[in-house]
Amino acid sequence: MKTVELYTRPGCSYCSAAKSFLLSRDIVFTEYNTAQNEQKLKQMLREPLIKSKMPLASQVFSDQDELLQA
Questions:
Q1: Yes or no: domain 4-69 corresponds to CATH 3.40.50.410
Q2: What 3-state DSSP class applies to 19?
Q3: Alpha-carbon radius of gyration of the chain
Q4: Is the four-CA dihedral 39, 52, 6, 49 of positive or negative sign?
């Protein structure tokens, strides 16, 4: 089974939508609140799949493949 990670931040409607998407499809995931976990924020920003220079949230990764980016 693939590992799915969801990086979120409070008040992010895209994050809520991504979480709802995963839940509606019974996809098991681990959620990381980047506002509370600086290490995960730094990890998210280091991911080579991120092409934007802008910090983004509601990023979903499955075994290091990006599934969804809002």
A1: no
A2: helix
A3: 11
A4: negative
